[in-house]
Amino acid sequence: MTAAVERNTLLRTRGSAHSRDRLEARSGVEGSAGSAGAKRPLVEIAGLSIGFRHANGGTPLVRNLDLTLHAGECVALVGESGSGKSLTARSLLGLAGHDAVVEAARFVIDGRDALEFGERDWRALRGTFAGLVMQDALVSLDPLRTIGAEVGEVLVHHRLLRTRKAIAARVQQVMADVGIPDPAQRARQHAHELSGGLRQRALIASAVAGQPALIIADEPTTALDVTVQVQVLAVLAERLKQGVGVLLISHDLSVVAGIADRVLVMHDGVVVDAGTHDEVLTNPRHPYTKQLLAARPSASSKGYRLGSARFVGVSGEGQPVEAQPAVKAAAEAVSIVREPLPPRHRDTSQTVLEVQGIGKRYRRPGTDSKERFTALEDVSFTVSAGEVVGIVGESGSGKSTCANIVLGLLEPDAGDVRLLGAKWNGHEVRERERTTLRTRLQYIPQDPLSSFDPRYTVRRLLEESLFTQRLSKPKTMERAVALLEQVGLSAAFLDRRPPSLSGGQRQRIAIARALAPEPALIVCDEPVSALDVYVQAQVLDLLAELQAKLGTALLFISHDLDVVQHISDRVLVFKEGRLIEQGEPEQVFGKPVHPYTRLLVSAVRGSGAAAKALEGAGVV
Amino acid sequence: MLKKIIVRLLSSLLVLWLAASATFAAIHALPGRIEDVLAGDLSYPGLREAIAAQWGLDHSLGWQYSHFLVRLLHGDLGTSYVMQQPVTEVLGSQVWPTVQLAVAAGLLAFAVAITVATLTAGRGAWSIRIASVLELAFTSTPVFWLGMLLLILLSFQWRLFPVSGAAGWRSLVLPAVTLALPTAGVLSQVMREALEQALDQPFVTTIRARGVGELALRVRHVLRHALLPVVTLGGWLIGSLLGGAVITEKMFGRPGIGTVTLNAVMSQDLPVVLAVVLLAAFIHVAISTLLDVAYLFIDPRLNTR
Amino acid sequence: MSSSNPARRELVLGRDTQAGTPVQAARRRKFWPPGVIASVVFLALLVFALVLPQWVTHYDPLVSVVTQSLQPPDAAHWFGTDRIGRDVFARVIYGARYSLLIGLASMLVSLAIGLVFGIAAGLGNRWVDEPASRVFDVLSAFPSILLSLFVVTFLGQGIINIAIAVGIAGIPKFGRVVRSRTQLVRRANYVTHAVTCGLSRRQVFFRHLLPNVLSAVPVIATIDIGAAIIAVSGLSFLGLGPQPPTPEWGVMLAESRDVLRVAWWPSVFPGLAITLTVIAFSVLGKYLQRNFEGRTQ
Asked: Which of A268, A563, B139, C172 has an alpha carbon 20 to 30 Å from B78's alpha carbon atom?
């Protein structure tokens, strides 16, 4: 009875001196973090289940979840899309959705029973007890309001501070805390005026302005460049040190490596594996986690099929995955066994593509100034027959521009491009002359759906790419079916429409279409970036197999170093329009020469050294 | 930024100039001699001479054209031969009732639309359904029929409001409501869709995660987003109100520009129709331009260099 | 491939990218299907009335029986009679062809001209785009009713003239939508891809560009025809279109004004006919739009 009365008093006095006390009290706590064990946990959940009445046939989307989080601790929820991790995180703020059915054996937040919470109670703790950081600050912050208004909103709404001056001062302080330089000026700007990294920090600032005890970060680094990811995670790590608890959600296990104390792997609404990051990495218990880890491309997987990977116990028996017991009593060393891919035939004497000193400049949009933005400068490389050349770089590095120039869709301002010995660029070369050669050069895009005419069936798509071969109708059909079989799809797919297919299937059709005219070179622009790990593995295997069999050269563009390392014979590293390093992947990634490459590699490997290197390089 | 404003202003001036020229060309493109066209069925002494003098018919076409433009710039809208008065006099006396009507209807439409949109966006399916049905009904109803229905109910059955005339505020109510409802329907639809789109955005989750309640969320944050498309609609809105005023005035027997225009159309009094059309175009373009410039200031995303 | 069953494995690891998570899929509600069915049925009946009005009613819309004037709706006259004793129901049925066909005609005028200008503007370089856009701007600078009135002043009154007048006023709407769609399609990835397949510009235009632009036209047309019908009946109401005793709905409304005080049925039913027709077209058009939204890009 007394507890209930206490709780009600708590709520009724919101906005009064009580809140101010809370703000001050917490800042006192900040210094004395670390003794997490003795304190009561911030969040204590057992047997959580979240479902929606009208979805999924009534089955809950999250089942039987246990989660405990203490101050100063970082717990990571890792899983693929649809695994229920975001839903779990949102439920900690009561934001699972107003039609969500949340049940649990125990659901205690900040010592109170959250199952009893009404909307008022949730609103009271949002922003003050827990803050939410989401993906992509560009759409997660109100684009019409200034950064300062966004960061200060928690303070204003919960009346944590009274005067405008106090709020403004606090806003600037928080912004400086998360590492935003010149906060006074930035506070007057809007989200789109800041760079990606700064924006994300501003988003974090808006979540921590109320000094919450818990930060819930839902994919905070996705869609950011690797070097920026490191910075953002460093900001979260700082907060951890100050005694704030962090719940980190990601689809990528490697992202949470340096920061998470504990990792929970989720699949299909259930937690399938738990432990520290290293434990999960080296000793996965559930078949799902095993496959997930085994299917990731890396240096060791090169030359092997990713999709065929299996975990094998110390005893050396190659048991099929399903037969292994789900739980192992002791931590056994496990290794991964993979099947090899067919060998490649590179013919370095035959040059398929020759790029010499190309450059491209754009006028900066929005201004009439003479200022020109250099997309590419003096880039030269060659691709030999049957070779896979990987291009790696962050956003703005010029890889897409390079791809467009190679494809003949863009004219370079300088330099030459030669395809199979013939001049490919320049205004003297007329489109008609290029048309005949075009079929020897094909393209696989990141989002295949947008490159399919929305009215077309698969049949018509394949027919179109066989168009220039001028085969008879029955022959064209034969070829189309053969192509589908090559990419592992049955002839039944001919009459399907791409929007009804899954991402992996669409990409296979894009590959089939690209192979149809038997090209000498295929430009692949981030072909697997939008796919989940396992599907990505299958598509990479397919590409590698077909490439080896048909001897097609590939120009493979990606921001993911692991993928590029897995598949390429040679690697080109782009930075801000320049080609700064090239060579064999083992060389470039194993012993990088250029400081930027070193930065890139260490950022991916997730070591703390990366953050220090960044500070040294002055990258913001 | 300044450059954008100047470009917009120039573009509007261009459109106005083209509009005036188009009307000039239309008059001269008709078969028959220009005096006959302008005189229509009339014939009284001095008519032909007056027309020739005013339109400069004994000069070259180019001269006539520039004379026409100069006249417009001076605000001289020509002379109505049917009424034997300068057009500005004909219109001037009738402007006020129309302005009253248009402004009243506009404000009413806006108020209704905001309230409905704010209250129904993102709520349960039922309120959205009802609102959608009502909006659909009001935008599909011809404005004159709506007026008739209101007359039947409120004037004849219940004797609440007068049937016609322009005396006092009571006679403004029915015409204003009649004119406002279809417009409110469109505005409400647009605003609600914009609100719902905005409510689907990730930043709304961030705002909710700060503890802001649903009503405060809509009013303080999302409404701004919903008003953006309305700003771009503003020009259309004015045009629609002016056009609708014509029909409403006829419907309710109210004096105003609409009545004048209709009489002019019936009697083929070209100068008056011409003047009204150009005036309406001017107002429309002026307000659209103002709103577009305002939009540049309101939406910070357009502000970047 | 490996020996273990790949299909089984996919079950374990499952998720390939699908259209939205289960939560999002659950939230998508459809509002219109029963309304769409009603609209289609209504329009079908209307077309029937258009083609075979004599099967719907045995009364002649033009015959007036003065002794029967202003009868309220009853078993003999479902919609009552008007001031000079004509059966209102018959007049509404026979009037369908006027309102619908004139509305259709004006929509086609807007469509034809707007389409040509719109595609030209969307495809062409600045020298084509700018003038075309200015044409649209000028036309839309005049409020549509006033523009129609202006055209009627020139052309005179009559059925064909109001069709042209309303058609001209509707050009900017079509033109702008077609123009932006053409620009969108022109930049689409599948158009780029067709170029890389070795197709000539002419082939790309006819195989991809034109069909994908035209596929959006029926939707706009359906939504627009409602507005056209309102505009046409509005001009008829003002006395500029068909003249009495033609049973066009707008004309009927104008005629009913005189007896509004004593009889509601000569005005309510024709107006209801207009409203329901426009609603039916709007509902159908919005439904088509919603269902083809995913197909556009």
From this structure: C172
